[in-house]
Amino acid sequence: MSAMNAMGAMSAMRKDAMTPPHELPPPPPAPDERPWKDRAGLLDARARAMGALARWYLAPHRALLLWLSTLVFALGWSLAVSGFQFLVKGEIIEHVLGVIFLGLALGATVPSSLGVFSGLRSDVFVGACLRDWAELERDPRTLPHWRVSGGALLWLGPSIVLACLGLALGGFAVFSDVGTESVGTVAGIGLVFAAAGALGMAKAIDYYRLVGRELRPLRSDTGGPDAYGPDPLEPDPLDPDSGYDDGFSDDGFSDDGFSDDGFCSD
């Protein structure tokens, strides 16, 4: 019953991962189509877009989807190895058990693989949108509007543990005296864990790279307001007395929201 509940939860989260991110802001427009009349407007739109994208990109439920899919796939791999071992024994009962185990393995590995690949496809697209917005400008003052450090840490920490566990299992299968029948199971599970951990770490590192880029000072020979500090002619978006309206509501989105036209979709 618990296995069926886990499969149901994974199926629901996989459906969420396969849903096109219509609620997310679009990629930045081309230079000749940008609607912003000044740098303040660009920074405001950039902060709102990056906030929505970063929260989706590092959402905790997407990490749970990856880990649950990894566990289900590892279970399917174990069933598949056992099924093949039953088939090669040559007895009628073992053949029947082998077919049953292989059927269960197929039911576990196919949905979990689809969930991972669908989520990875959406992550690649949304991550590209996030990087495109980040490359428009650089402004540490608006960083608090799109920083999701807790989400990044949630992805990074368990992913490191999962990758280390996978490497340990792989090393144990190769260098220990584990039985021949168990080598494939242990090594396969280790490979699955290491791959899932690497995906999670890559996602968190990608986010930290954007934050590091935002905090890195510009060279003075690049020109622009950031090269020499804040522009005295523009209001400070973090100063409550400057009259600067950042257009954010309490949940981090703009007060007027985003329209449905032109949103990122798969």
Give keywords.
single chain; 266 residues; mainly alpha
pLDDT < 50 stretches: 1-20, 220-263
Largest sheet: none
Compressed to H and E, one letter per element, the order equals: HHHHHH
Global mean pLDDT? 77
Description:
The protein is 64% helix and 0% strand. The protein is built from six helices and no strands. It starts with a helix and ends in a 51-residue tail after the last helix. It is mainly α.
Précis, in short:
By secondary structure, the chain is mainly alpha-helical. The protein contains 6 helices and no strands. The longest helix is centred in the middle third of the chain and has 43 residues, at 92-134.
Record the SSE blueprint:
Elements: H1 2-18, H2 39-57, H3 60-87, H4 92-134, H5 149-175, H6 180-215
Helix pairs in contact: 1-3, 1-4, 2-4, 3-4, 3-6, 5-6
